[in-house]
Amino acid sequence: MSTHSLTTIDDLSVLNDRLAPLSFRAGWNKAEPSLWVEPRTDFVPFHWRWDAAKAGLDTAGRLIDTELAERRNLFLVNPHPGNYYATLRTLVCAYQMILPGERARSHRHTPHALRFVLDAPEAVYTVVDGVRIDMRPGDVLLTPGWSWHGHGNEGSRPGYWIDFLDVPTVHLLEPMFFEPWPGDYQRPERHTRDHAFVFPWESTEPALAAAIPDPEGRYGQRVVLDSAAVMPSMTLALQRLPAGFASRPWRTTANQIISVKSGRGTAVVAGQHYAWQAGDVFTVPAWHALQISATEQSDLFTVSDENMLRLLRYLKEEAL
């Protein structure tokens, strides 16, 4: 189509039709608005129960090994139509289990990853860039993007943890790379728990116990882990709720995945009520109202995209 043929049109609907084959879309003829008055998302609040996940993993342990499944894990897939992988728009998480005597092959990838340990004997470990780090319940272990990592279990019972990754963010931005370790397993060069990539529960628990309660009544006591320098796309935070705690309702533009280390309580997310207990996970999509109550002292671990939104100046929070 020539430029002259566009200049001679005297009907707006004809102009719209002529622009379409040229891959133009007129701003006055949008298929749908590109701006809206407040955040909206297809992702929905949801609650995954640890007892169901553990039953599924234990059964999978009888049916498939780490030779066939590089990671024996169950992804927490948000049940909005058309989604097949992500837990929230920018984040994905999964329950993972490793049996005694198993090793999960080493690899590396662009996305940042971390694991929150639910239950592990002393001989369950991860190897990150050649360093073996043994896992303990309550530990947070980091695998920054492009770090080699694999796992193993030299104990007598299974180990369980929750993986969190920013894979959906990498899918959106598209700089995805993946590489398997030559020879399957990276052998550790040293063995320590004193490492920048591990936040041991024995260190974070005292900090959590000493934290000043949130004056705005959202979190109870809260400790944000110092991980942003190596994992800028995510914020990792532990919070302690005393028995009888009831938060003020609030919302944020950050997407939040909340896992339960210990305790019991309820969460109301945009009108959806969830009764949570140790090991459970629930989601709070962006700009969804959240209110949490604890029936007994409870410790929660939250992974969100708060830091990324803060860096981009997209973070907004408000009390309701």
UniProtKB/TrEMBL annotation:
InterPro entries, alphabetized: Cupin_2, GDO-like, RmlC-like_jellyroll, RmlC_Cupin_sf
Lineage: Bacteria, Pseudomonadati, Pseudomonadota, Betaproteobacteria, Burkholderiales
Keyword field contains Oxidoreductase: yes
Pfam families per record: Cupin_2
Origin superkingdom: Bacteria
Entry protein name: Cupin domain-containing protein
Keyword set, alphabetical order: Dioxygenase, Oxidoreductase
Segments forming domain Cupin type-2: 96-163
SUPFAM superfamilies listed in its UniProt record: RmlC-like cupins
